[in-house]
Each structure stands twice: as C-alpha cells, then as structure tokens.
Write the structure tokens for this entry.
Amino acid sequence: MSDTSGTPFAALVFDFDGTLIDSAPDIALALNGTLAAHGRAPVTAGRVRGMVGDGSANLLRQAFRETGAPLDEADLPAVLADYTDRYFDLPADPACLYPGVADTLKALAQAGVGLGLCTNKPERIARNVLGMIGLGGLFGAVAGGDTLPVRKPDAGPVRHVLQALGGGRAAMIGDGVNDVLSARAAGIPVALVSYGYPRGDVHGLGADLVFDRFAELPAALERLAALAP
C-alpha cells in the first residue's frame, strides 16, 4: 500500500473514466445496444476510448456520425435515456479498476484526505458504478455531467465538489484535457495519469505533472505541492 502520511492536500478531485477505471468495455456494451436498436453497426471498446470525456450526449453524437447519418437533435433525449438506462443496468466488475487505485484511495481516505469525483458521465451512473466496485463510501462528493447546468471543462463541477468537501488546499487528478482546463479554471493544480484516455500526447496537455502508475500518486502529490506552493 502507498504511504500517504503527510499528504500535502486536504482535498483531491478525481476524474473517473481513464483515471480510476477502464470503463470503455462497459460503455461500448451499452452504446452498442443503443446503436443496434437504431440499426447501426457496433463500435469497438478501443474506439470508445477515443470518444469518452465530453459527456454522454456528445458520445452518442459521435457514435451516430461514425456509423451512419448524424443523430437528429430532436431524438437525442430519447436516445440518451435509452443509453443511460442500458449503462445503469450493467454490472460493474471491480476488475475495471486500474492497478493500485483501491488501496491508494483507501489509504488517502484513512489519512483524512477528502476525496471527490468529478466526471462527465451522468451522476446516477457514476454513483452506481462506485458502489458496485466498492468505492462508494470513500467519496465525500460526486459531480456528474448532469449534476449542474455546466460540466468539465467548466470550473463549476470542480468547485461544487470542493465546496462539498469543505475546502482547503486541493488538487485535481485526471487523464485528459478537460481535467486540465477545469482545474485551471478552478485555480487548483492538476496531475494526469499517463495510461488513460487522453486523446493525444498526455505530456502536451498542460498539466503540472504526469505520472505513470496510480500507486505513485502520493509521491506525485508531494511533487505537485512543491511545484504549486
């Protein structure tokens, strides 16, 4: 287990997909069910990894464009409801957690660090998945893509989570450009994992630092604190 003693931040805000979990297979399963219901061909989990990050509505728009005619915006609410219901009903396997995530998060929580989740997936799905993979009790605040009128890269969801956690020195941990932009807008430092869904060179997204394994997070936080005193 990682050593989290003396962690320099009172609160940490985490992205979900590509940071804590490899959700692409489950997203692809739900998405392909919706696509099939509309006579569309399936997309691969590998392709989904390049489509995740901008919310469920944009995921559906992109998937429809790539499999035929664009999605009619008038049909979006019904298609979105179909997709989110399919996703909500899927069982989540704790094996979707990246190595080191569970132990590191538990150690941080035991050390008194406030943990928050800020994702662009719907809040009810995020909370449902957290519960099924055994992490629900660790997070003091969750903001999904539909929790507020805005989502990442806006600062609103990050600030919402930080307020719920009680404030204090904070940092963002994610895997993509929306995490960097939302952290910058909220005025907190940001570190990215190198293994997620960055849609480009993760080292070129403007994060304060990049680290390779989740178990390295405590050491990364020490470096991050030194860079952003």
